[in-house]
Write a sequence for this structure.
């Protein structure tokens, strides 16, 4: 897709309620009960919606990123985002923003990912996220709600986001899993993007063929979403997916 094709696109708002300060490094071998000497450390502000906004900008588009953050790691997150120059709106929370830790094992090519739980939200904090979203709503545009929900945030949070989007004439895209995905589907969204593992968990069966994946997407379609993007079945499910397969229904 040419970058110029983004010029006339509707406005885009991304939502990340559980961002992470991503710490990455590498070591020759990961072994237990030993100090592992690592290479230089890289620190990046990450999270579903933040990553989406970053890619949109690289493709020549623009997006406003709404995220929640707090504590020392939240302040570091805010400064790094400001350095990148991404347009953002931050909702402050009391507890500290989580970290994630990734180690590349250079001797084998394996990658180890440690994803921390995230801060506990109060009702006032997750309600403030919804209120800020409503005030920043891209009327006639897109809302991309992506990432896990932290403790304290109800499972139907993304369903509430979808409801707000519909009321404003915006299209809601959800990248989630488990109960949060199920609730969003029940409410009705424009597009969902589960991984193969997430789609299998939602369907309750193993989806090892293109036909079974298409059938699972068709069943989810009855729960009121318009499109599903899933992994190319020719690629292994344990590695990052470089190609995606879309099932228009």
């Amino acid at each position: 897709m040419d970058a110029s094709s983004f010029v006339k696109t509707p406005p885009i708002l991304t939502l990340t309620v559980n961002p992470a300060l991503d710490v990455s490094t590498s070591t020759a071998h990961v072994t237990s009960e030993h100090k592992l000497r690592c290479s230089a450390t890289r620190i990046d502000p990450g999270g579903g919606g933040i990553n989406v906004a970053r890619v949109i900008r690289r493709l020549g588009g623009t997006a406003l990123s709404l995220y929640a953050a707090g504590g020392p790691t939240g302040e570091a997150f805010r400064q790094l985002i400001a350095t990148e120059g991404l347009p953002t709106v931050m909702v402050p929370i009391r507890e500290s923003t989580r970290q994630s830790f990734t180690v590349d094992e250079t001797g084998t090519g394996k990658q180890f990912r440690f994803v921390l739980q995230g801060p506990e939200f109060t009702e006032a904090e997750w309600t403030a996220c919804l209120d800020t979203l409503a005030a920043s709503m891209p009327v006639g545009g897109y809302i991309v709600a992506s990432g896990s929900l932290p403790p304290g945030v109800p499972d139907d949070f993304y369903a509430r986001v979808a409801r707000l989007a519909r009321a404003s004439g915006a299209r809601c895209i959800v990248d989630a899993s488990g109960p949060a995905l199920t609730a969003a589907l029940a409410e009705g969204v424009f597009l969902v993007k589960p991984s193969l593992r997430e789609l299998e968990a939602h369907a309750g069966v193993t989806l090892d063929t293109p036909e079974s994946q298409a059938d699972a997407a068709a069943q989810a379609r009855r729960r009121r979403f318009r499109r599903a993007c899933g992994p190319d079945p020719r690629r292994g499910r344990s590695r990052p997916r470089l190609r995606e397969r879309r099932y228009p229904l």
